User: Fold tRNA 5-carboxymethoxyuridine methyltransferase from Shewanella morhuae.
Amino acid sequence: MQDKNFDKLAQKFAKNIYGTPKGEIRAAVLWRDLAPALANIGEKKLRILDAGGGFGYFSQKLARLGHEVVLCDISAEMLAQAKEQIEASPTPLAIQLIHAPIQALSVDNHGYFDIILCHAVVEWLVDAKTTMAGLISMLKPNGLFSLMFYNKEAMRFHALVSGNFDYVAADLKVRKKVKLTPTHPLYIQEVKGWFSDWHMSLISQSGVRVIHDYLKKSQPADFDYQKLLQMELEYSQREPYISLGRYVHFLGQSPAV
Assistant:
């Protein structure tokens, strides 16, 4: 088995990430979690790795704040989109593009980082924990690790409330894979175990799309998506809603020494 490369789906994938209400929710929850942690660090310029960051939505956002970013992705098409957007920026952005699998990154070649982002990547990896451990080795003491992963239990619950009982009985396995459905979803407790093994403290945890994916298919014409976003932010850090998030975001901090 091979890790997923989105070259053939780059346009569709980019649009699905941030060009829809669910993309707005994703961006808002992640930034809500990251902003206070950045503020606590202070005004200094940071080295940030966006591992598997696609066209670099957060790479560009962080570079606009004056930070130095390394954006790595296995997809040449995604990085081509990133390059086009970076060059179109009205202000120069300090972003280095690396076309490679994130497993190829190393301290010897790329140094250490104050913050490492890895969003919606692990659920496409054959050996996610080993790959994440490799990223963690590049984190400075007291560094921040932002990991967002596809929640297998939420995947099951969504299938249940949709009446897809045969799919649940088959342990969420189908003969024909949907191209944008992650191949290796993860359980929350499994990922918490990783953080424990890495001796990494968990600063915050949030569910991403704790409401959106369970809405009825038909909504009234005057449905207020801004109200939905407000409710997503309000409930995303409460249980049982965290555990129902289609994705879950963990923000961890590495040991001081």
The longest strand covers residues 139-150. The radius of gyration is 18 Å. The chain has a mean pLDDT of 91.
